[in-house]
């Protein structure tokens, strides 16, 4: 039986299994295994993870490909322009991981500003000597200003959280001077990037990695942040210059950096491991059971719908 759906993981929840009941020609096999490579020849659908970049060369080996499903909202690991050219549909998982990712961005911010990792390490080391007036003093956020890059659902969800803890919120997005964005509450004003940065006591990144946003924050732009600013990234590595941010942190010009995503993850710039005032997480933005199940459901429904639609269109043409 030739493979119709080629998936690299059975995802969280029962949905891949359900898809297999409807399409028995489904095969789950590791990314780039010999079976995966052989399956490309007949595959009509590929299901991949955000850590599994597909190349144009891969897709050239898939003459029957109709749809690619990615278990992520981000699609920067896919050759999007090439897919458009060939009419290959991309199914991703927008909407269902908005709150989980915004929650994680807030977790990074509060962990950094309230020195949670240091406090926990102190307690676990057995070195804690008791309450003290100046023990691990952090930074309050109420009354401070939060700059957000990106006005999509996750940026807006983070804006509501920042507002709820008393911050003033500004945002920048790629669209420039477009109609107002509805943040759900009257909180956020759009600013040009170079005006937003000097005001941002906290800068949180919520834009996709695209040709426009890759390298958006180089050394000069990062240096526009006010002294002591906190930088949070739950979007993608590659949007800011990691080495420049580390240098600013070393010089005491940045107050702290909280990262869930990295350039070239999971290989880290070794500088991060030694960097003070950082909280580093292994890309956990969408990592709740509820969210990962919702992502699986959305993805499998999208694949099924795509295959059926394409099937119907083909039989109408015949
Ligand atoms: C995604 O799905 O693109 C996010 O990075 C998950 O954290």
Keywords:
12 strands; 2 domains; five-stranded parallel β-sheet; elongated; 36% helix; seven-stranded parallel β-sheet; 318 residues; binds (2R)-2,3-dihydroxypropanoic acid; alpha/beta; Rossmann fold
What does this protein look like?
It is built from twelve helices and twelve strands. It is an alpha/beta fold and 318 residues long. It has two domains: 5-95 and 290-317, NAD(P)-binding Rossmann-like Domain (Rossmann fold, 3-Layer(aba) Sandwich), CATH 3.40.50.720; 98-280, NAD(P)-binding Rossmann-like Domain (Rossmann fold), CATH 3.40.50. A seven-stranded parallel β-sheet has the order 8-7-6-9-10-11-12. Strand 1 (5-7), helix 1 and strand 2 form a beta-alpha-beta unit. Bound molecules: (2R)-2,3-dihydroxypropanoic acid (DGY).
Strand content: 15-25%
**Regions with little confidence, pLDDT below 50 for 5+ residues:** none
Envelope shape: elongated
What fold name stands as the CATH topology of the largest domain? Answer: Rossmann fold
CA radius of gyration:
22 Å
Helical percentage: 25-40%
The CATH homology group name of the largest domain: NAD(P)-binding Rossmann-like Domain
Small molecules bound in the structure, each named once: (2R)-2,3-dihydroxypropanoic acid
CATH class division of the largest domain: Alpha Beta
């Amino acid at each position: 039986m030739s493979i119709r759906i080629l998936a690299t993981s059975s995802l969280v929840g029962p949905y891949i299994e359900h898809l297999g009941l409807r399409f028995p020609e489904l095969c789950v096999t590791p990314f780039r295994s010999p079976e995966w490579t052989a399956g490309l020849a007949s595959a009509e659908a590929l299901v991949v993870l955000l850590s599994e970049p597909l190349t144009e060369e891969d897709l050239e080996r898939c003459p029957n490909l109709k749809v690619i499903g990615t278990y992520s909202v981000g699609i920067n690991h896919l050759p999007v322009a090439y897919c458009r050219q060939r009419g290959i549909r991309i199914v991703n998982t927008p909407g269902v991981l908005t709150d989980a990712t915004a929650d994680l961005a807030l977790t990074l911010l509060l962990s950094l500003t309230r020195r949670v990792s240091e406090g926990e390490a102190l307690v676990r080391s057995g070195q804690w000597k008791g309450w003290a007036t100046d023990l691990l003093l952090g930074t309050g956020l109420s009354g401070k200003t939060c700059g957000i890059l990106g006005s999509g659902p996750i940026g807006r969800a983070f804006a509501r959280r920042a507002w709820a803890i008393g911050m003033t919120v500004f945002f920048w997005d790629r669209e420039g001077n477009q109609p107002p964005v509805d943040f759900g509450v009257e909180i956020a004003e759009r600013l040009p990037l170079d005006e937003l940065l000097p005001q941002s006591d906290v800068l949180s990144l919520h834009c996709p990695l695209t040709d426009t946003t890759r390298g958006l924050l180089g050394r000069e732009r990062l240096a526009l942040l006010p002294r002591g600013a906190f930088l949070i990234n739950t979007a993608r590595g590659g949007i800011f210059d990691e080495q420049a941010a580390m240098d600013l942190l070393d010089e005491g010009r940045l107050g702290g950096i909280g990262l869930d995503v990295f350039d070239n993850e999971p290989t880290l710039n070794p500088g991060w491991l030694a960097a003070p005032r950082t909280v580093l997480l292994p890309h956990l933005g969408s990592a709740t059971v509820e969210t990962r199940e919702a992502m699986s459901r959305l993805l499998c429904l999208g694949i099924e719908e795509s295959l059926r639609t394409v099937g119907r269109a083909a039989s109408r043409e015949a």
